[in-house]
Specification:
Blueprint: E1 12-15, H1 23-53, H2 60-88, E2 93-95, H3 96-129, H4 134-137, H5 140-165, E3 175-176, H6 183-187, H7 195-228, H8 233-262, H9 270-294, H10 297-317
Parallel strand pairs: 1-3
Antiparallel strand pairs: 1-2
Helix pairs in contact: 1-2, 1-9, 1-10, 2-3, 2-9, 3-5, 3-7, 3-8, 7-8, 8-9
């Protein structure tokens, strides 16, 4: 990257983050998000462990849930540790390569999660509307292919969006008004006309956000029609409870992502960007295991069994 004003190379960015906040505010933010990050890592790690080791949780729903938690771990680890370091360190500089890599991981993991949430909605549709054919339609092989598809499109999409973001030279400023390298903000720092890059990201967001959302809406519309056609109110209540957790996760994730990548930049500001970035980088990954585990009796029992085995192993080692 070349600075067109003086010919010097621009090889780094400065993440402004919460630098303008008071020291007491930064300390409070550090304590709060350290706790949230630790909680999110612990809960998602527990879900990964029990869904991959407990034979009672062998259904496709728990297979997808384990991979969702793994994506959440990758997502928050890409951004939050760096933010915590910058809250206590004076040096907020990140290299061009580090910024590019971070953005690629955010794009890749984020898109993979969007697609996976759509596949999870389809899984619920098959389980509720076609229960007799569920095992055949959602076989282990099919589930592996669906998860692989989510990862493949996420990682390929990350390459495309990284290229679009960093295609031009940067010569205006190297201060990023956020706590991580977010594409629309980085594009605004480039020398050329950012309209092409922003339009490409907007079009990509339509595909990777709205297309999975259409599948989710169709799946739950058919689920709703199936539920309303049932005579048993207890059956309706159980099905609503099963689907409510997934819908809650979808609403959290999609609304924050759509604001960040589908709104005109004129409606954005540093405070709004940081708020919505925090929502989908830490709050949503932390809420996912809470929502799924607290609304699911099998998950609760599996967690108790896993924690019980851990306590027993520790007592025997002592």
């Amino acid at each position: 990257m070349v600075d067109l004003r003086n010919g010097s190379r621009v090889a780094e960015f400065i993440l402004v983050g919460f630098e303008q906040s008071s020291s007491s505010t930064r300390a409070l933010i550090f304590a709060l998000f350290s706790a949230l990050y630790s909680l999110a890592m612990a809960m998602n790690g527990l879900i990964i462990f029990i869904t991959w080791t407990d034979p009672r949780l062998s259904s496709p729903m728990y297979f997808f849930l384990g991979h969702l938690s793994f994506l959440d771990v990758c997502f928050i680890t890409t951004t939050i540790p760096q933010m915590l370091i910058h809250l206590v360190a004076r040096n907020h500089i990140v290299s061009f390569a580090s910024c590019l890599t971070q953005m690629y991981l955010v794009f890749g993991v984020g898109v993979a999660e969007c697609i996976l949430l759509a596949f999870m909605a389809y899984d619920r549709y098959v389980a509720i509307c076609h229960p007799l054919s569920y095992a055949q339609i959602m076989s282990r092989q099919v589930c592996v292919k669906l998860v692989s598809t989510a990862w493949f499109f996420g990682l390929i999409n990350g390459i495309l969006l990284d290229y679009v973001t960093f295609r031009g030279p940067f010569c205006r400023d190297n201060h990023i008004e956020n706590f991580f390298c977010e594409a629309p903000i980085v594009i605004a720092l480039s020398c050329g006309d950012p309209q092409f890059s922003l339009t490409t990201i907007f079009a990509d967001a339509i595909v990777v956000l709205l297309s999975p959302m259409v599948l989710i809406v169709i799946s739950y519309a058919r689920i709703l029609a199936s539920i309303l056609g049932r005579a048993s109110s207890s059956g309706r209540g159980k099905t609503f409870s099963t689907c409510a957790s997934h819908l809650t996760v979808v609403i959290f994730f999609y609304t924050s992502a759509m604001f960040s990548y589908m709104n005109p930049r004129s409606t954005h500001g540093p405070d709004k960007d940081k708020s919505f970035s925090l929502l989908y980088t830490i709050i949503t990954p932390m809420c996912n295991p809470i929502i799924y585990s607290f609304r699911n009796k099998e998950m609760k029992r599996a967690m108790v069994r896993a924690l019980g085995r851990t306590s027993l192993a520790q007592s025997e080692s002592v």
